[in-house]
Design a protein that fits this description.
mainly alpha, single chain
């Protein structure tokens, strides 16, 4: 095999490898291509996911608002309970003072 035949053989082999690579690339791109109907389905799923995330965010916000409202109501109710208990304590002390006073008055007779 002389030099010219070697160059031609190498060129033919390189061209054949190039054609084989091009063919494999064309086949892969054809088989891995996404159909338009599948793209529509992906878009629908992404829209549903986006809607679900927005609904979750609204639910979390509503929950936080309810929690803040209930916390405020609880603190208000607790302060009312404390003032009622203080009033009851004062009333009991006053009742005890009146009982002592009445017992002393009755004991003097």
């Amino acid at each position: 095999m002389n030099r010219t035949e070697f160059i031609i053989a190498t060129a033919i082999i390189l061209f054949a490898v190039f054609l084989l690579g091009w063919l494999v690339n064309a086949l892969l791109s054809r088989f891995s291509r996404v159909a338009p109907s599948e793209m529509d389905e992906v878009e629908k799923l992404s829209q549903k996911l986006h809607d679900a995330e927005q609904a979750r965010d609204r639910a979390i916000l509503d929950l936080e608002n309810r929690e803040a409202d209930l916390t405020a109501r609880l603190s208000h109710t607790s302060s009312e309970l404390r003032s009622a208990m203080d009033g009851l304590r004062e009333s009991r002390a006053e009742i005890e003072e009146l009982r002592d006073y009445i017992e002393r008055k009755l004991a003097r007779r």
